[in-house]
Amino acid sequence: MSDEAQSSTQTSVSDEMGADLSATGQREPRSARLAYLIGIAGWIMPGLGHAILKMWGRAVACFLTVGVLVVIGAGMRGNLFSAGGGDAFATLGYIADVGTGAFYLVAKSLEVDGPDVSRAGGDYGTRFLAAAGVLNLLAALHAYEAARGRKA
């Protein structure tokens, strides 16, 4: 059988994560555009990127972990940084806070009385909020990488 006939008769099958499996059983990665969309979805709503990839355990873990960190940080009256930060640390803090995605709006709504960093609890709350954002950004990056077929 010629190579052309053999390659035309090969069909691809999808596995549980949606990546195509060739006749040889090797994974062919998703398109780059779909992987970007999955990464962005994972950033906007924590765990959504993994849910799209049907990684249910990671999706629930990301959603609950980021959500709990935001609620604890906002409950401790941690500081949410603003976009107009005066120095590099304020800018990094803002990026970390926005990294929580939709939970950033939740934290803003819970910050009725404003931050209270004059005591240790408020300072720790700021760290909880930043940790939630960084964790969500890392989870969105993992969802992107998994969609590209690079990691699982």
Describe the 3D structure:
- There is one protein chain.
- The chain has 152 residues and is mainly α.
- It is 61% helix and 4% strand.
- It has a 3-stranded antiparallel sheet, with no helix packed on it.
- Helix 2 (32-44) runs antiparallel to helix 7, helix 4 packs parallel to helix 6 (103-110) and helix 4 runs antiparallel to helix 7.
SSE layout and pairing:
Layout: H1 3-9, E1 13-14, E2 20-21, E3 27-28, H2 32-44, H3 48-52, H4 56-75, H5 88-98, H6 103-110, H7 120-148
Antiparallel strand pairs: 1-2, 2-3
Helix pairs in contact: 2-7, 4-6, 4-7, 5-7
Output the keywords:
elongated; three-stranded antiparallel sheet; 152 residues; mainly alpha; single chain
- Mean pLDDT over the residues: 81
SSE topology string: HEEEHHHHHH
What structural class is derived from the secondary structure elements? mainly alpha
Total beta-strand segments: 3
Whole-Å distance between the termini? 36 Å
Please summarize the sheet with the most strands.
3 strands, antiparallel
Backbone shape? elongated
Uncertain spans: 1-15
* Content of β-strand: under 5%
Strand order of the largest sheet: 1-2-3
Q: How many alpha or pi helices?
A: 7
Using only C-alpha atoms, the radius of gyration works out to 20 Å
**What portion of residues is helical?**
55-70%
Describe this structure in a few short sentences.
With 152 residues, this protein is mainly alpha-helical. The chain has helices at 3-9, 32-44, 48-52, 56-75, 88-98, 103-110, 120-148; strands at residues 13-14, 20-21, 27-28. Strands 1-2-3 form a 3-stranded antiparallel β-sheet, with no helix packed on it.
